[in-house]
User: Fold this.
Amino acid sequence: MQKYVRFYRYQKYARLAHLVERLIDVEKAAGSNPASRTRKIWMILFYFFVLILCLIVCVLLVLFYVAQIVAAFTTDAPFVPIPQETVEKIIEHLKLTNDSVLYDLGCGDGRILKRAAEKYPSLKAVGIEIAFVPYLFAQWKTRKNKNIKIRRENIFTANVSDATHIFFYLFPEVPKKLLPILKTKCKPDTRIVSCDFEDKQSEPTEIIELNPLAKRGKKLIVYTI
Ligand SMILES: C[S@@+](CC[C@H](N)C(=O)[O-])C[C@H]1O[C@@H](n2cnc3c(N)ncnc32)[C@H](O)[C@@H]1O
Assistant:
């Protein structure tokens, strides 16, 4: 009786071993199949490409944040763009025409200039930006607008003598330093519009409330030379 049991067990294991052997054969056959090998190579290349792409994105992100940190210490105001929905209102209150020469001092990514140039196709627009990353963004964003020039310069030393309109969104202390300089450089009737921050020493021509509850772009302070 025991003999039969042992034989039966042997039969069971033999069948299992046979099955495993067949599976190995199938895998081997697939491995030697040129189509499957090509598919494997493409898969490896794909994963490699994704890995390289992830690495490039990580490096760019690190560079972006490093540049932002450096800019925070080396410029007079950080790159904090005006919300896109406020841009339209600002353009409206700048009171531009097709003959205007508009400067955005500290133009960031150039969004104000771009919208103004789209609305007034013959206007001349100039962006002054000192920080490298926003300067690149502005160059890229305005690459198709022939009437926009982005200059990598300091707002305190830039030549703005041909301006008819000047806009800036620069943080607390900057308008106080900048306005006296602009008064000596700009021609009479230049409309200077500061967003949110005013120079308490200068009398504004007009204060325009945009959205008092907004974090950025609450009001415009207008000065006329
Ligand atoms: C608050 S952001 C305003 C960006 C843009 N005008 C807007 O409204 O979206 C200020 C910008 O001014 C630039 N900036 C700060 N100090 C500057 C300086 N001395 N010369 C030129 N640009 C400067 C910063 O790099 C930053 O991009």
